[in-house]
Amino acid sequence: MSDRAEHISDATAEAVGKLSEALEYVERARGHLYSFHQLIGHADGVLGEAVEALRADGRTEAADLLETEIVGRNVIDGRWTFQVVEEFDDTYWGPLRDTEKQIRDDVADGVRHLYEARMKERRRTHGHPDHTEKP
Asked: Domain for residue 60, yes or no?
């Protein structure tokens, strides 16, 4: 654990740890959002292939319907998935990351995972070769 963090109270370390935990959950949610983006993009490509296959089989009316109504359609009002991702990044994820860093810098000397570092120190078996403080 960083020597410069010893003056930070356990309550502050725990609070900043909760903030970091929340950010970790948002990072995971963002990953799922990117999965959604990629899955929908892939599905749209496959739908395009279905249009081509229907046309090749002379099913022009069905192909036209699928192409007109679904292929390239917005997933929510006015937005494709890339726009959803970008808006999420700009509106929520980016500001949360910036705020987490600012608070960590202001109240925890910029130390990342301070709460976890203190937990490791409490839980490790001192003197055991597989429980060392640092690599």
From this structure: yes
